[in-house]
Every structure is written in C-alpha cells, then in structure tokens.
Amino acid sequence: MILAEQLKQGIDELGLELSDDVQRKLLDYLALLEKWNKVYALTAIRDHTKMVSHHLLDCLAALPHVTAQRVLDVGSGGGQPGLVWAIARPDWSLTLLDSNHKKTTFLRQAVIDLGLSNVEVVTGRVEALTAEDPYDVITSRAFSDLGDFVRLSRALLADDGRWLAMKGVHPYEEIALLPKDIVVDKVVPLHVPGLGAERHLIIMQAVPNA
C-alpha cells in the first residue's frame, strides 16, 4: 500500500474529513521529517509505513476531542502533534515549543516549506514562556509525567482551558498523584489505525478553590 492510500484509509477509519490538499501536505511534512531526521535525529522510526501510523494517524486520532482556537504544544519535538494539527486545522493558531534548538530549527523550516501561516515556533522551556493571551488547549506527547506537565504550564492556560496529554497505556498512577485542584474530565482510549499499541488521551482542567 502506498503512503497516500494508507493515510487516506486511516483518516477514513478515524471518521475525519480532511481534504486532498491537507492529506498531501501531511505527506509533505512526513517527507521533510524523514529528510531532516538523517542529520537531526528527530525520530527513531525509519519505516515509512510506521511513520504514517505512529506520527500522522496517532496525532490525528485526538482531533475529534480538541475544541480550541489557540493551542500550545509543549515539547513539540519533530512536530507531533503541533505541526500535524496545524496542517489539519488551518483555522487554529498553534504555538510549538521545544527547548532543543535543532528541533525548533527543523520546525521553523517545516513551517516555511509547508506554507503554514497559523504556527509560531518558540525555543525554550515551558516554565520560562509567557503569553499575553492564555491558551485554550495545552497539549503534549512528550512529557513523561502528568503532574509536571500541568504544574509547569499552568500559568499559560485559560481559565476555562483544558490540558490534553497524549499517553500510551492508561496512566493510573500519574492521575492519582495529580494536585487536588486538577480534575480529569475524561480518559479517552484512542484507536490508531495500524499502530497496534495502546493510546489514551487524558483531558484535564483546573478547578478554582478546590
């Protein structure tokens, strides 16, 4: 199966409606990721088929659960989920944050090459970031601990905003150790076509005066 067919089939399985132009741009992003990966070590995955499932469809699977206009992707790395979401949702505004200069160099070039006008790339640590307008959604696929994720990014989230953490297996222990004023709205099991591994989306919010 060629990559375009694999991607289209996966998108159909996820119940998403993405134009042919968006699908082409997603594959263009994958080509850039593969090209830059040879020098910058952006991903351990080399197989094209796995790149579609592990990088594109894995990020796209969360889209139906995201309601936002302003999104911050913490530890964006090679652009997951930030760049993938930016391509799929051109009406959203996304900030991609990473402390690794090589990764943000790639992200900035990818934004230029893909012609994305809805993305800002920032090099730095999340605790040092300031924002005049808080974010509707703060997401991450890289943070290993939910507690650190919400603690370090809390000042950047809108009062009615949500954290969306992309995880593998259900993080029972991490959830149990969250601060008392952080509520888990929902834990969504995600079926990612072709992945063959557990994926969960943890949706959280802060409760004032809890």
Automatic annotation (TrEMBL):
**What are the EC numbers?**
2.1.1.170
The coiled-coil segments of this chain are none
Q: Where in the cell is it found?
A: Cytoplasm
Under the heading SUPFAM superfamilies, the entry gives: S-adenosyl-L-methionine-dependent methyltransferases (SSF53335)
Residue numbers binding S-adenosyl-L-methionine: G75, Q80, V126, E127, R141
Name of the molecule in the record: Ribosomal RNA small subunit methyltransferase G
Q: Which organism is it from?
A: Chitinivorax tropicus
Record field: catalytic activity? guanosine(527) in 16S rRNA + S-adenosyl-L-methionine = N(7)-methylguanosine(527) in 16S rRNA + S-adenosyl-L-homocysteine
> From the Swiss-Prot or TrEMBL record, what is one GO molecular function term?
rRNA (guanine-N7-)-methyltransferase activity
